[in-house]
Design goal:
The chain has nine helices and no strands. By secondary structure, the protein is mainly α.
């Protein structure tokens, strides 16, 4: 066993595996984190566990596997926004800019999503890459309006403003 005690409640067991996996992931112990996310999923599958296991695969540069994990997360809970945004981000990493757009758009309207600025910012990155300056600026501005602490979004707005002054 990996340091997480068995419980009678599968949700509690899954949550404990998930928490330990997240801690290991943040420490850079990716293979161990992947295993514990798997144990969390075995105990009680959640969109969060699939998404975070995908995120861990992305740290290893395995974007295809990361995307596959996010697709599993969407099957478990299509309302959860994180996997949509993450798929888009992984596609950007693979330089599949155009393919990423619908994923960010889906993340923007997902009913259960707390990180609302991210898909707007990421879509801004796509538009900036495509030289669609006005659309990019609008996306960055929206991201910043959703979180005034999101300095990367503010930097995007300022960078694009400066280009045209």
């Amino acid at each position: 066993m990996s340091g997480v005690p068995e419980k009678d409640d599968p949700r509690q067991t899954a949550a404990e595996y998930f928490q330990r996996a997240y801690e290991l992931q943040m420490q850079g112990e990716y293979q161990q984190a992947i295993e514990l996310y798997g144990q969390s999923i075995d105990a009680f599958p959640t969109a969060e566990a699939y998404t975070f296991r995908g995120w861990t695969y992305s740290f290893l540069g395995d974007y295809d596997r990361a995307i596959a994990e996010c697709l599993e997360a969407i099957k478990v809970d299509p309302d959860f926004g994180n996997p949509y945004n993450d798929i888009g981000a992984y596609l950007i990493e693979q330089e599949k800019w155009e393919e990423s757009i619908p994923w960010f758009q889906k993340a923007m309207i997902a009913p259960r999503y707390e990180a609302r600025p991210y898909p707007h910012f990421n879509l801004g990155r796509v538009y900036e890459h495509q030289h669609q300056w006005q659309k990019a600026k609008e996306c960055y501005a929206m991201a910043y309006s959703l979180d005034r602490r999101y300095v990367a979004a503010l930097a995007g707005v300022r960078r694009l403003r400066a280009m045209f002054n």
